[in-house]
Amino acid sequence: MQSKDNRDQTEENQYDNPPLLHQSEEIETIRKTSLFAQDVTETEQGIIDKRVALQQRQYAEFERRERERKSQKIRGVFEFVSDEEISEALRDCENDEEEVIVRMTQPRYLIEIRKTIAERNLRSLHINLMTDEQKEAYEQLLKKRKETLKKTTGENAKKQYRMKGRLALDDALKQVQANTRDLEKAFEGWSEARIKAYKAIETKPNTYYYRFNAPGEEQKKGQWTKEEEELFFSRLKEMKETGADGQWGIFSMAIPGRVGYQCSNFYRLLIETGRIKDPNYVLDDKGKAHYLFSTTNKKTGVTEKVFRTHTKHGSNSGTRAQTSLSKSTTRSTPAKKKRKTGKKRGYASDDDDDDLDYDDSGSYILKSWNTTKRTRAQASSSKGPQVLDYEMDEIEDENPLPGFIDPITLEEVVKPAISPYGHVMGYDSWVRCLSSEPKKNICPLTKKPLTKRELVILTMDNIEQYRSKIVNRNE
């Protein structure tokens, strides 16, 4: 009992902080009959500055005591949380410690707090790679490139234009740094997708880090080291726990020197070598991994895994071929493609970022290479979300949200799709909203950046995975 009283007395003395209180008495006091009749002398100004500085120190000490008191109160209930997690939670709850305690009883709240801390520590938020003048010049350059592409005819001409003078990543960045005034020379040899990704470091970090390292960081190439592999598997587990799967740009931020497409290619290599089991991939006769999309056959009603082959720009054929296989199939052969001539760069190349800002792998799923038969059986029956990176095939007629009213058409939703913010509308409604000027690629509900590629079409297969995330339910 005596020990507790002594501890309480110590804390009370600590909060009183007599030294700061006594410092006010030590500062000289000058009294004047009229404050505005005479000018302030240098001596008086020095006294004023001392008192202002003392007030600032006293307020800072008050804030420190308040933070410590609130932290102790929170840790009294949740003793395992760190100081940084408490600070972030208080910031999120507007310094209301009672609200923090209530929210931490929710299972996912602490996970979201940790995710916020991790993302803040991994990326640079206040780096301006372009001045306003450079951004304006970039817009003009982008417009000029689009007009040039429209004038070219045929696949060969377009390919030659895009690939002409293509630079390795490090060389491309050095070229930009050497030509800060001339944007034409700075981006010479860059693909349009690479330019867009370079500009998106602050607005779309996943797009930026899919192709680029953090500013000033040199890209690593070649075989992955043992240390990098350990970082990769650790990051893979971390991203699956936070539910942020499929974002290879964000994924790569934790692996120094590697960018998103390198991580995506390495993941495929792990599948091809049998070190990771992922039911969403299948190997062809050459041993290459291909991502499988889940779709329901409208005639038979059977859920199938299918390849999706996209038509290239400028090709004569406007059809898209797809090869389906049953759930139990482990190896298959994709649709045959016309043989290309000339130098061919493998998809797993460290320098292969493609002109498309797209990774068709859908989502990555961590499957231990030492799993039991039971966990492998569970993995084989799981279905990842369908990622709308390109035009989707027709979705089954059965509506996973019967009676749900589309906020745009005010009728029952057709082919519902959910945004990352949790809002659901018909896919056609999303397309119209995101394609209309001047609000192109802006969510009509949240006014935040949003593209069609970020939408997920809801089906009978994945509705339970997303039902709890819907924020505009109207039933």
TrEMBL record:
SMART domains: SANT. InterPro entries: Homeodomain-like_sf, SANT/Myb, Ubox_domain, Znf_RING/FYVE/PHD. Residues 1-10 have a biased composition (Basic and acidic residues). Residues 314-333 have a biased composition (Polar residues). Keywords: DNA-binding, Homeobox. Pfam families: U-box (PF04564). Residues 1-24, 308-353 are annotated as: Disordered. Residues 334-346 have a biased composition (Basic residues). This is Homeodomain-like DNA binding domain-containing transcription factor. Gene3D superfamilies: Homeodomain-like, Zinc/RING finger domain, C3HC4 (zinc finger). Residues 216-271 form the Myb-like domain. SUPFAM superfamilies: Homeodomain-like (SSF46689), RING/U-box (SSF57850). It comes from the Eukaryota. One of its GO terms (molecular function) is ubiquitin-protein transferase activity. GO terms for biological process: protein ubiquitination.
